[in-house]
Amino acid sequence: MVVVSSLAACSSVKTQPVTYTPMPTPVVAQTPAVVYTPQEQAVRQTISQIPDWFVDVPKVENTIHAVGDGVSGSVSGAIAQARANAFEGICQAAGGKVRSQTKIFRQDTEKSSTSYSTTAIRNLCPDVDVTGATVEKRKIIQDGGRYRVFVLVSLP
After folding, report:
1. Within a 10 A sphere around the Cβ of 146, how many other Cβ atoms?
2. 62-77 pLDDT, tens per residue?
3. pTM score over 0.85
4. What is the 3-state secondary structure (H, E, C) of 89-154?
């Protein structure tokens, strides 16, 4: 009787089916890969190679510093442009007058923008003595099929 009543008690218990609810998979936000055009890549590479002294020109007591850059298909052409630009800065900082003329030609379309500029610099400092100005630092990098030169010039 005890056994029968135990079995009867077990049969009267209703069991509920166990349902399994899976945990939601966490969604990880993926940053899409940034794709740069070849021109943007070239600009980013050039910017990463600009010397610190070109951006933050040294300040030394009793010395004038100026920087310049130049781009050309020849190393000597790029150096000459960079020096001319830097010496223009020296001349102006020392109180001289430099004659320069820049022409900028720009063409804009719906899909692109093209800019072309020419600069003519005449480094005449007849009213300022720039004797002793020297190129302190120079950096030459390859910029595509051209050379880019950065120079730092000082005048005690």
Report:
1. 15
2. 999 999 999 999 999 9
3. no
4. HHHHHCCCCCEEEEEEEEEECCCCEEEEEEEEEECCCCCCCCCCCEEEEEEEEEECCEEEEEEEEE
